[in-house]
Amino acid sequence: MEALNPSLETRESELVQQARAGCKEAFYRLAQPCERAFFAAAMGILNNEADAEEAAQEAVLKAFTNISRFRGECKFSTWIIQICINEARLKIRKARKHLYESIDESKSGEDGDYFPRDFADWREIPSEALERKELRDALQRAMASLPEKYREVLILRDIQHLSIEETAQVLGIGTGNVKTRLLRARLQMRDALAPGIDGNWSLGRQEYAKVRAW
Amino acid sequence: MIEISCLEVWKEISNFIDNDVEPELRARMEAHFKVCAHCTAILDGAHNVVKLVTDGVEYKMPDGFSRRLYDKIKDK
Questions:
Q1: A9-97 has which fold?
Q2: Is residue B8 a contact partner of residue B24, using CB atoms and an 8 Å limit?
């Protein structure tokens, strides 16, 4: 099956029409080019490959069943990403149903200020450093350490490259909340990763020493 | 130009990175970064986070994901 270029909006709307009429082939052609984004959205929340695949695929099937509800107000992929996020959340809530942590977390406000933990100075990180398992592992750990609501925003904005408005739509929150959560996510990631930059990410002759500003 | 505090800068640092601040605020923040090593360090670190997450976080697709998805849609 050939890959669909998602930039072809007219083609997308044709396929949506066919899928609405029950054409499974057309639906697959719509969904398949974006499957990585669906999986990543679920993986970012669940952090487990098998669970993320289950959630992403369940979301795609729900999208097929409910395609009559897709009114073209957003991109088709954005609509399914939204369903993936909901599926993943549902899964994680079920796993934690005996705990109250997530409920309390979702009620907490966004108004409090976030204060950076320290002012370690990062120099520019060379792209070659990303090849290093140590840095990739630290990144994954830092992502996993974020509260779910911050991780979701970081994934949608900085990995999926959704706009602020699209992110707000997917998460069902206001754009102001998206910006606040993104700020916190980025600063918490910085705090989580900064100690690792304390000379540890040096590559060859280049060194990225932690330099305190005082 | 009205000076801006470190706290105000931190609140807007993510929007600054996304080029989502008004020109007047941007100018005030840029002036602040020139004289505040703390906020410059936070800006550089946040920039690095965006670069790292954008380039370095990738979720490897499970083998056979597409085929299983195709089969499930077909069986629906």
A1: Rna Polymerase Sigma Factor; Chain: A (1.10.1740)
A2: no
Chain B residues close to A124, C-beta within 8 Å: 44, 48
pLDDT at A120: 63
CA atoms within 13 A on the CB side of A166: 17
User: Which of the 8 DSSP states describes residue A49?
Assistant: H
Question: What residue spans in chain A does CATH classification 1.10.10.10 cover?
Answer: 112-197
Mean pLDDT of chain B: 91
pLDDT at A121: 65
**pLDDT tens sequence across A28-78:** 999 999 999 999 999 888 888 999 999 999 999 999 999 988 888 888 899
Contact check, Cβ <8 Å, A121/B37? yes
B44 vs A39, A64, A122: nearest CB: A122
Min CA distance, A15 vs chain B (Å)? Answer: 15
Locate A61 and state its tokens: 């099937």
Domain boundary assignment for chain B: 6-75
The gap from C-alpha B48 to its chain's centroid, in whole angstroms, comes to 9
Q: Do B76 and A65 touch (CB under 8 A)?
A: yes
Chain-centroid distance, C-alpha A141: 15
Q: What residues in A contact B59, CB-CB < 8 Å?
A: 36, 39-40, 43-44, 52
CATH class of the region A112-197: mainly alpha
CATH 1.10.1740.10 domain locations along chain A: 9-97
